Amino acid sequence: MTLKYVNESLTFDNIDIQELDQTIQTPYYLYSKNTIDKNVDEYISELKNINSLICYSVKANSNLSILSLFAKKNLGFDIVSGGELHRVIRAGGDSSKVVFSGVGKTDEEIEFALKNNIYCFNVESQGELSRIDAIASLLGVKANISLRVNPEIDANTHPYITTGLSENKFGISQNDVLSVFKMISNFKSLNICGIDYHIGSQIVDLDPFIDSANKVLLLINELEKEQIDLLHVDLGGGLGIGYNNELPISRGEYVRSVSEVFKDKNLKLIFEPGRSLIGDAGILVTKVIEKKNNNGKKFIIVDAGMNDLIRPPLYKAFHKISSVKEHNTSKDLFDIVGPVCETADFFGKDRRISANIGDLIVIEDAGAYGFVLSSNYNSRPRAPEYLISDKDVACIRGREEYKDIIGDEEEYLK
Ligand code: LLP
What positions carry a catalytic annotation? Predict the structure, then answer.
Protein backbone atom coordinates (compact mmCIF):
# COMPACT_ATOMS: atom_id res chain seq x y z
CA MET A 1 0.00 0.00 0.00
CA THR A 2 1.30 3.43 -0.90
CA LEU A 3 -0.41 5.04 2.09
CA LYS A 4 1.66 7.01 4.57
CA TYR A 5 1.28 9.87 7.00
CA VAL A 6 3.15 13.04 6.08
CA ASN A 7 2.81 15.94 8.54
CA GLU A 8 0.03 14.07 10.34
CA SER A 9 -2.06 13.76 7.20
CA LEU A 10 -2.55 10.56 5.23
CA THR A 11 -1.16 10.52 1.70
CA PHE A 12 -1.87 7.99 -1.03
CA ASP A 13 0.80 7.73 -3.69
CA ASN A 14 2.12 11.11 -2.44
CA ILE A 15 -1.26 12.82 -2.80
CA ASP A 16 -2.58 14.46 0.39
CA ILE A 17 -6.08 13.02 0.79
CA GLN A 18 -7.22 15.89 3.01
CA GLU A 19 -6.39 18.38 0.25
CA LEU A 20 -8.61 16.50 -2.20
CA ASP A 21 -11.53 17.22 0.14
CA GLN A 22 -11.66 20.75 -1.30
CA THR A 23 -12.58 19.39 -4.73
CA ILE A 24 -13.84 15.81 -4.44
CA GLN A 25 -16.97 14.93 -2.54
CA THR A 26 -16.97 11.68 -0.54
CA PRO A 27 -17.46 8.76 -0.86
CA TYR A 28 -15.12 8.02 -3.75
CA TYR A 29 -12.68 5.40 -4.97
CA LEU A 30 -9.11 6.49 -5.57
CA TYR A 31 -6.60 4.36 -7.49
CA SER A 32 -2.85 4.67 -7.96
CA LYS A 33 -1.38 4.13 -11.42
CA ASN A 34 2.10 3.77 -9.91
CA THR A 35 0.98 0.84 -7.78
CA ILE A 36 -0.78 -0.81 -10.72
CA ASP A 37 2.35 -0.38 -12.88
CA LYS A 38 4.54 -1.81 -10.12
CA ASN A 39 2.26 -4.84 -9.71
CA VAL A 40 2.12 -5.54 -13.45
CA ASP A 41 5.85 -5.05 -13.87
CA GLU A 42 6.55 -7.65 -11.17
CA TYR A 43 4.60 -10.22 -13.15
CA ILE A 44 6.14 -9.12 -16.46
CA SER A 45 9.73 -9.21 -15.25
CA GLU A 46 9.27 -12.64 -13.68
CA LEU A 47 7.78 -13.99 -16.92
CA LYS A 48 10.13 -12.31 -19.39
CA ASN A 49 11.92 -15.52 -20.35
CA ILE A 50 8.84 -17.72 -20.26
CA ASN A 51 6.38 -18.29 -23.10
CA SER A 52 3.43 -16.70 -21.34
CA LEU A 53 0.44 -14.39 -21.41
CA ILE A 54 -0.98 -12.42 -18.49
CA CYS A 55 -4.76 -12.10 -18.85
CA TYR A 56 -5.98 -9.53 -16.32
CA SER A 57 -9.18 -10.76 -14.72
CA VAL A 58 -11.61 -8.00 -15.67
CA LYS A 59 -14.13 -8.82 -12.91
CA ALA A 60 -11.74 -7.46 -10.25
CA ASN A 61 -12.06 -3.89 -11.55
CA SER A 62 -13.50 -3.16 -14.96
CA ASN A 63 -13.24 0.62 -15.20
CA LEU A 64 -12.26 1.50 -18.79
CA SER A 65 -9.31 3.65 -17.72
CA ILE A 66 -7.98 0.79 -15.57
CA LEU A 67 -8.42 -1.69 -18.44
CA SER A 68 -6.67 0.74 -20.75
CA LEU A 69 -3.62 0.80 -18.41
CA PHE A 70 -3.40 -2.99 -18.71
CA ALA A 71 -3.98 -2.90 -22.48
CA LYS A 72 -1.07 -0.45 -22.82
CA LYS A 73 1.12 -2.97 -20.97
CA ASN A 74 0.11 -5.51 -23.68
CA LEU A 75 -1.81 -7.70 -21.27
CA GLY A 76 -4.59 -10.01 -22.36
CA PHE A 77 -7.88 -10.24 -20.49
CA ASP A 78 -9.86 -12.92 -18.68
CA ILE A 79 -13.57 -12.20 -19.14
CA VAL A 80 -16.76 -13.83 -17.87
CA SER A 81 -19.47 -12.03 -19.84
CA GLY A 82 -20.29 -10.23 -23.07
CA GLY A 83 -20.37 -7.01 -21.05
CA GLU A 84 -16.76 -7.52 -19.96
CA LEU A 85 -15.72 -8.17 -23.58
CA HIS A 86 -17.50 -4.97 -24.60
CA ARG A 87 -15.51 -3.09 -21.94
CA VAL A 88 -12.20 -4.63 -23.08
CA ILE A 89 -12.88 -3.59 -26.67
CA ARG A 90 -13.95 -0.06 -25.68
CA ALA A 91 -10.81 0.30 -23.56
CA GLY A 92 -8.61 -0.56 -26.55
CA GLY A 93 -7.80 -4.12 -25.42
CA ASP A 94 -6.76 -6.76 -27.92
CA SER A 95 -9.59 -9.31 -28.21
CA SER A 96 -7.23 -11.86 -29.74
CA LYS A 97 -5.67 -12.05 -26.25
CA VAL A 98 -8.98 -12.70 -24.46
CA VAL A 99 -9.90 -15.90 -22.64
CA PHE A 100 -13.60 -16.34 -21.87
CA SER A 101 -14.29 -18.15 -18.57
CA GLY A 102 -17.55 -18.87 -16.74
CA VAL A 103 -20.08 -21.68 -16.29
CA GLY A 104 -23.00 -19.97 -18.02
CA LYS A 105 -22.07 -18.36 -21.31
CA THR A 106 -25.21 -17.54 -23.32
CA ASP A 107 -25.49 -18.18 -27.07
CA GLU A 108 -25.45 -14.42 -27.67
CA GLU A 109 -22.25 -14.02 -25.65
CA ILE A 110 -20.58 -16.91 -27.51
CA GLU A 111 -21.52 -15.35 -30.85
CA PHE A 112 -20.29 -11.92 -29.76
CA ALA A 113 -16.96 -13.46 -28.64
CA LEU A 114 -16.53 -15.44 -31.88
CA LYS A 115 -17.27 -12.39 -34.00
CA ASN A 116 -14.57 -10.55 -32.08
CA ASN A 117 -12.07 -13.31 -32.64
CA ILE A 118 -11.19 -13.99 -29.00
CA TYR A 119 -8.26 -16.30 -28.32
CA CYS A 120 -10.04 -19.07 -26.42
CA PHE A 121 -13.14 -20.28 -24.59
CA ASN A 122 -12.50 -21.84 -21.18
CA VAL A 123 -15.23 -24.47 -21.38
CA GLU A 124 -16.84 -25.81 -18.23
CA SER A 125 -19.23 -28.53 -19.48
CA GLN A 126 -19.97 -30.88 -22.36
CA GLY A 127 -23.17 -29.00 -23.19
CA GLU A 128 -21.20 -25.81 -23.63
CA LEU A 129 -18.90 -27.56 -26.13
CA SER A 130 -21.82 -28.48 -28.40
CA ARG A 131 -23.30 -25.00 -28.20
CA ILE A 132 -19.99 -23.33 -29.09
CA ASP A 133 -19.52 -25.79 -31.96
CA ALA A 134 -23.00 -25.11 -33.35
CA ILE A 135 -22.59 -21.33 -33.18
CA ALA A 136 -19.05 -21.41 -34.65
CA SER A 137 -20.28 -23.63 -37.48
CA LEU A 138 -23.12 -21.21 -38.30
CA LEU A 139 -20.62 -18.36 -38.42
CA GLY A 140 -18.19 -20.44 -40.50
CA VAL A 141 -15.33 -20.07 -38.00
CA LYS A 142 -13.37 -22.36 -35.69
CA ALA A 143 -13.44 -21.80 -31.94
CA ASN A 144 -10.35 -22.38 -29.79
CA ILE A 145 -11.20 -24.47 -26.76
CA SER A 146 -9.61 -25.05 -23.39
CA LEU A 147 -11.29 -27.32 -20.84
CA ARG A 148 -11.50 -26.15 -17.25
CA VAL A 149 -10.58 -28.99 -14.96
CA ASN A 150 -11.59 -28.99 -11.34
CA PRO A 151 -8.44 -30.13 -9.51
CA GLU A 152 -10.27 -30.80 -6.23
CA ILE A 153 -7.91 -28.78 -4.11
CA ASP A 154 -8.86 -26.93 -0.94
CA ALA A 155 -7.49 -23.42 -1.31
CA ASN A 156 -8.04 -22.59 2.39
CA THR A 157 -9.90 -19.42 1.59
CA HIS A 158 -13.42 -18.15 2.32
CA PRO A 159 -16.02 -20.75 1.18
CA TYR A 160 -17.63 -18.21 -1.19
CA ILE A 161 -14.39 -17.70 -3.10
CA THR A 162 -13.09 -21.25 -3.28
CA THR A 163 -13.75 -22.83 -6.66
CA GLY A 164 -11.62 -25.95 -7.01
CA LEU A 165 -13.63 -28.39 -4.89
CA SER A 166 -15.97 -30.98 -6.39
CA GLU A 167 -18.88 -29.45 -4.46
CA ASN A 168 -18.34 -26.17 -6.38
CA LYS A 169 -20.12 -25.54 -9.68
CA PHE A 170 -16.88 -24.87 -11.57
CA GLY A 171 -14.96 -26.99 -14.07
CA ILE A 172 -15.07 -30.58 -15.26
CA SER A 173 -14.07 -33.30 -12.79
CA GLN A 174 -10.61 -34.84 -13.16
CA ASN A 175 -12.19 -38.23 -13.83
CA ASP A 176 -14.19 -36.95 -16.80
CA VAL A 177 -11.80 -34.49 -18.36
CA LEU A 178 -9.89 -37.00 -20.50
CA SER A 179 -13.05 -38.36 -22.12
CA VAL A 180 -14.37 -34.84 -22.73
CA PHE A 181 -11.06 -33.89 -24.42
CA LYS A 182 -11.45 -36.97 -26.67
CA MET A 183 -14.96 -35.85 -27.62
CA ILE A 184 -13.71 -32.52 -28.96
CA SER A 185 -12.32 -34.10 -32.14
CA ASN A 186 -15.92 -35.04 -33.07
CA PHE A 187 -16.82 -31.38 -33.32
CA LYS A 188 -15.96 -29.89 -36.70
CA SER A 189 -15.75 -26.27 -35.55
CA LEU A 190 -13.64 -26.66 -32.41
CA ASN A 191 -9.85 -26.59 -31.99
CA ILE A 192 -8.32 -27.92 -28.79
CA CYS A 193 -5.81 -25.38 -27.54
CA GLY A 194 -5.45 -25.73 -23.79
CA ILE A 195 -6.39 -26.81 -20.32
CA ASP A 196 -7.30 -24.39 -17.54
CA TYR A 197 -8.01 -24.34 -13.84
CA HIS A 198 -8.63 -21.82 -11.07
CA ILE A 199 -8.87 -22.97 -7.47
CA GLY A 200 -10.11 -19.86 -5.71
CA SER A 201 -9.28 -16.34 -4.72
CA GLN A 202 -7.33 -14.56 -1.93
CA ILE A 203 -5.02 -17.56 -1.51
CA VAL A 204 -2.07 -16.78 0.72
CA ASP A 205 -0.30 -20.18 0.83
CA LEU A 206 1.85 -21.59 -1.92
CA ASP A 207 0.87 -25.23 -1.33
CA PRO A 208 -2.59 -25.24 -2.97
CA PHE A 209 -1.07 -23.58 -6.06
CA ILE A 210 1.71 -26.18 -6.29
CA ASP A 211 -0.57 -29.12 -5.56
CA SER A 212 -3.10 -28.11 -8.19
CA ALA A 213 -0.35 -27.45 -10.77
CA ASN A 214 1.03 -30.93 -10.15
CA LYS A 215 -2.39 -32.50 -10.55
CA VAL A 216 -2.88 -30.69 -13.86
CA LEU A 217 0.61 -31.75 -14.98
CA LEU A 218 -0.42 -35.40 -14.51
CA LEU A 219 -3.48 -34.78 -16.66
CA ILE A 220 -1.35 -33.15 -19.37
CA ASN A 221 0.85 -36.28 -19.36
CA GLU A 222 -2.27 -38.42 -19.78
CA LEU A 223 -3.41 -36.26 -22.69
CA GLU A 224 0.00 -36.59 -24.37
CA LYS A 225 -0.31 -40.37 -24.20
CA GLU A 226 -3.58 -40.00 -26.10
CA GLN A 227 -1.88 -37.75 -28.70
CA ILE A 228 -3.89 -34.77 -27.51
CA ASP A 229 -1.43 -31.91 -27.77
CA LEU A 230 -2.08 -28.59 -26.13
CA LEU A 231 -0.71 -25.12 -26.83
CA HIS A 232 -1.19 -23.70 -23.39
CA VAL A 233 -2.02 -24.28 -19.75
CA ASP A 234 -4.05 -21.55 -18.04
CA LEU A 235 -3.37 -21.45 -14.30
CA GLY A 236 -6.18 -19.04 -13.40
CA GLY A 237 -5.78 -16.34 -10.77
CA GLY A 238 -6.18 -16.38 -7.02
CA LEU A 239 -2.99 -14.90 -5.59
CA GLY A 240 -3.92 -13.11 -2.37
CA ILE A 241 -2.83 -9.77 -0.95
CA GLY A 242 -2.06 -8.69 2.63
CA TYR A 243 -5.30 -7.12 3.86
CA ASN A 244 -4.41 -7.49 7.53
CA ASN A 245 -0.63 -7.70 7.83
CA GLU A 246 -0.73 -11.34 6.68
CA LEU A 247 2.28 -12.02 4.48
CA PRO A 248 1.09 -13.21 1.12
CA ILE A 249 3.42 -15.02 -1.24
CA SER A 250 5.12 -12.49 -3.48
CA ARG A 251 4.11 -12.31 -7.13
CA GLY A 252 7.64 -13.39 -8.03
CA GLU A 253 7.68 -16.44 -5.77
CA TYR A 254 4.24 -17.50 -6.96
CA VAL A 255 5.12 -17.19 -10.65
CA ARG A 256 8.50 -18.93 -10.21
CA SER A 257 7.05 -21.83 -8.24
CA VAL A 258 4.14 -22.66 -10.51
CA SER A 259 6.14 -22.09 -13.73
CA GLU A 260 8.69 -24.58 -12.43
CA VAL A 261 6.03 -27.32 -12.38
CA PHE A 262 5.45 -26.98 -16.14
CA LYS A 263 9.07 -26.27 -17.14
CA ASP A 264 9.52 -29.50 -19.15
CA LYS A 265 6.38 -28.91 -21.18
CA ASN A 266 6.49 -26.82 -24.28
CA LEU A 267 3.36 -24.93 -23.29
CA LYS A 268 2.45 -21.27 -23.08
CA LEU A 269 1.56 -20.36 -19.49
CA ILE A 270 -1.50 -18.16 -19.10
CA PHE A 271 -2.11 -16.33 -15.81
CA GLU A 272 -5.41 -14.69 -14.87
CA PRO A 273 -4.55 -12.40 -11.94
CA GLY A 274 -7.14 -9.94 -10.71
CA ARG A 275 -6.71 -8.93 -7.07
CA SER A 276 -2.91 -9.18 -7.09
CA LEU A 277 -2.77 -6.53 -9.85
CA ILE A 278 -5.30 -4.01 -8.56
CA GLY A 279 -6.31 -4.84 -4.95
CA ASP A 280 -3.72 -2.74 -3.12
CA ALA A 281 -3.90 -0.01 -5.77
CA GLY A 282 -7.22 1.40 -4.59
CA ILE A 283 -8.83 2.95 -1.52
CA LEU A 284 -12.35 4.06 -0.65
CA VAL A 285 -12.43 7.54 0.87
CA THR A 286 -15.39 8.32 3.09
CA LYS A 287 -16.39 10.94 5.68
CA VAL A 288 -17.67 10.65 9.24
CA ILE A 289 -21.31 11.75 9.30
CA GLU A 290 -22.16 10.86 12.88
CA LYS A 291 -20.86 9.18 16.02
CA LYS A 292 -23.02 7.37 18.51
CA ASN A 293 -22.85 5.32 21.66
CA ASN A 294 -25.45 2.58 22.26
CA ASN A 295 -25.11 1.37 25.83
CA GLY A 296 -21.34 1.58 25.67
CA LYS A 297 -21.02 0.21 22.10
CA LYS A 298 -19.48 2.96 20.01
CA PHE A 299 -20.15 3.58 16.33
CA ILE A 300 -18.62 5.79 13.68
CA ILE A 301 -21.15 6.30 10.89
CA VAL A 302 -19.61 7.18 7.53
CA ASP A 303 -21.09 8.30 4.22
CA ALA A 304 -20.07 5.15 2.31
CA GLY A 305 -22.17 2.01 2.72
CA MET A 306 -22.23 -1.67 1.92
CA ASN A 307 -23.66 -0.69 -1.46
CA ASP A 308 -20.23 0.87 -2.18
CA LEU A 309 -18.04 -1.92 -0.76
CA ILE A 310 -19.73 -5.19 0.15
CA ARG A 311 -16.67 -7.34 0.94
CA PRO A 312 -16.79 -7.06 4.76
CA PRO A 313 -20.38 -8.35 5.17
CA LEU A 314 -20.27 -10.74 2.20
CA TYR A 315 -17.01 -12.54 2.92
CA LYS A 316 -16.25 -11.37 6.48
CA ALA A 317 -13.37 -9.64 4.70
CA PHE A 318 -10.99 -7.51 6.72
CA HIS A 319 -9.97 -4.11 5.37
CA LYS A 320 -7.69 -1.79 7.32
CA ILE A 321 -9.39 1.49 8.16
CA SER A 322 -7.40 4.66 8.81
CA SER A 323 -8.24 8.17 9.80
CA VAL A 324 -6.83 10.74 7.37
CA LYS A 325 -5.77 13.02 10.25
CA GLU A 326 -3.14 11.32 12.37
CA HIS A 327 -4.46 11.63 15.93
CA ASN A 328 -2.22 11.15 18.93
CA THR A 329 -5.08 11.01 21.39
CA SER A 330 -5.97 7.69 23.04
CA LYS A 331 -8.10 5.67 20.71
CA ASP A 332 -11.43 3.99 21.51
CA LEU A 333 -12.89 0.90 19.88
CA PHE A 334 -15.53 1.62 17.27
CA ASP A 335 -17.60 -0.24 14.73
CA ILE A 336 -17.28 1.65 11.45
CA VAL A 337 -20.68 1.46 9.79
CA GLY A 338 -22.53 2.97 6.83
CA PRO A 339 -25.97 4.56 6.43
CA VAL A 340 -27.64 1.57 4.72
CA CYS A 341 -30.59 0.06 6.59
CA GLU A 342 -29.00 -3.34 7.19
CA THR A 343 -27.16 -4.63 10.26
CA ALA A 344 -24.64 -6.06 7.77
CA ASP A 345 -23.69 -2.54 6.69
CA PHE A 346 -20.27 -2.37 8.32
CA PHE A 347 -16.67 -1.89 7.19
CA GLY A 348 -14.96 -2.97 10.38
CA LYS A 349 -15.80 -3.99 13.93
CA ASP A 350 -14.05 -3.02 17.16
CA ARG A 351 -11.46 -0.88 15.43
CA ARG A 352 -9.17 1.36 17.42
CA ILE A 353 -9.45 4.65 15.61
CA SER A 354 -10.11 8.26 16.40
CA ALA A 355 -12.06 10.46 14.06
CA ASN A 356 -14.49 13.31 14.55
CA ILE A 357 -17.59 14.25 12.62
CA GLY A 358 -16.49 15.69 9.26
CA ASP A 359 -13.16 13.83 9.29
CA LEU A 360 -12.08 11.68 6.37
CA ILE A 361 -11.57 7.94 6.76
CA VAL A 362 -9.91 5.57 4.31
CA ILE A 363 -10.87 1.93 3.71
CA GLU A 364 -7.69 0.34 2.41
CA ASP A 365 -7.03 -2.26 -0.30
CA ALA A 366 -10.35 -1.59 -2.02
CA GLY A 367 -9.08 -1.66 -5.63
CA ALA A 368 -10.33 -5.19 -6.38
CA TYR A 369 -13.94 -6.32 -6.04
CA GLY A 370 -14.85 -2.89 -4.66
CA PHE A 371 -16.64 -0.62 -7.12
CA VAL A 372 -17.51 -3.56 -9.42
CA LEU A 373 -19.65 -5.11 -6.68
CA SER A 374 -21.35 -1.84 -5.80
CA SER A 375 -25.06 -1.26 -6.23
CA ASN A 376 -27.81 1.33 -5.90
CA TYR A 377 -29.31 -0.37 -2.85
CA ASN A 378 -31.26 2.12 -0.71
CA SER A 379 -31.35 4.25 -3.91
CA ARG A 380 -27.83 5.44 -3.26
CA PRO A 381 -25.99 6.80 -6.30
CA ARG A 382 -22.80 4.85 -6.92
CA ALA A 383 -19.53 6.52 -5.96
CA PRO A 384 -17.17 8.10 -8.51
CA GLU A 385 -13.72 6.74 -9.30
CA TYR A 386 -10.48 8.72 -9.55
CA LEU A 387 -7.01 7.76 -10.73
CA ILE A 388 -3.71 9.22 -9.55
CA SER A 389 -1.12 9.33 -12.34
CA ASP A 390 2.02 10.92 -10.94
CA LYS A 391 0.82 14.24 -9.51
CA ASP A 392 -2.43 14.29 -11.44
CA VAL A 393 -5.75 13.13 -9.95
CA ALA A 394 -8.29 12.52 -12.72
CA CYS A 395 -11.90 11.43 -12.62
CA ILE A 396 -12.35 8.12 -14.45
CA ARG A 397 -16.04 7.67 -13.65
CA GLY A 398 -18.35 10.40 -12.43
CA ARG A 399 -20.64 10.22 -9.45
CA GLU A 400 -24.09 8.91 -10.29
CA GLU A 401 -26.93 11.37 -9.89
CA TYR A 402 -30.54 10.76 -8.85
CA LYS A 403 -31.50 10.62 -12.54
CA ASP A 404 -29.06 7.73 -13.05
CA ILE A 405 -30.61 5.63 -10.31
CA ILE A 406 -34.06 6.09 -11.85
CA GLY A 407 -32.76 5.25 -15.34
CA ASP A 408 -35.63 4.88 -17.81
CA GLU A 409 -38.23 3.96 -15.17
CA GLU A 410 -40.12 7.22 -15.77
CA GLU A 411 -40.79 6.15 -19.37
CA TYR A 412 -42.72 3.17 -18.00
CA LEU A 413 -44.59 5.13 -15.33
CA LYS A 414 -48.37 4.83 -15.90
N1 LLP B 1 -9.91 -16.54 -13.10
C2 LLP B 1 -11.11 -17.05 -12.75
C3 LLP B 1 -11.67 -18.15 -13.55
C4 LLP B 1 -11.81 -16.53 -11.65
O5 LLP B 1 -12.99 -17.05 -11.31
C6 LLP B 1 -11.24 -15.46 -10.91
C7 LLP B 1 -11.96 -14.88 -9.77
C8 LLP B 1 -10.00 -14.95 -11.31
C9 LLP B 1 -9.34 -15.53 -12.40
C10 LLP B 1 -9.31 -13.83 -10.59
O11 LLP B 1 -9.01 -14.19 -9.29
P12 LLP B 1 -8.09 -13.25 -8.37
O13 LLP B 1 -6.69 -13.22 -8.95
O14 LLP B 1 -8.69 -11.89 -8.36
O15 LLP B 1 -8.15 -13.89 -7.04
N16 LLP B 1 -15.50 -11.11 -5.02
C17 LLP B 1 -14.55 -11.93 -4.30
C18 LLP B 1 -13.58 -12.63 -5.25
C19 LLP B 1 -14.26 -13.45 -6.30
C20 LLP B 1 -13.27 -14.07 -7.26
C21 LLP B 1 -13.98 -14.69 -8.41
N22 LLP B 1 -13.11 -15.28 -9.38
C23 LLP B 1 -13.82 -11.06 -3.29
O24 LLP B 1 -14.15 -9.88 -3.16
O25 LLP B 1 -12.95 -11.55 -2.57
Answer: 341
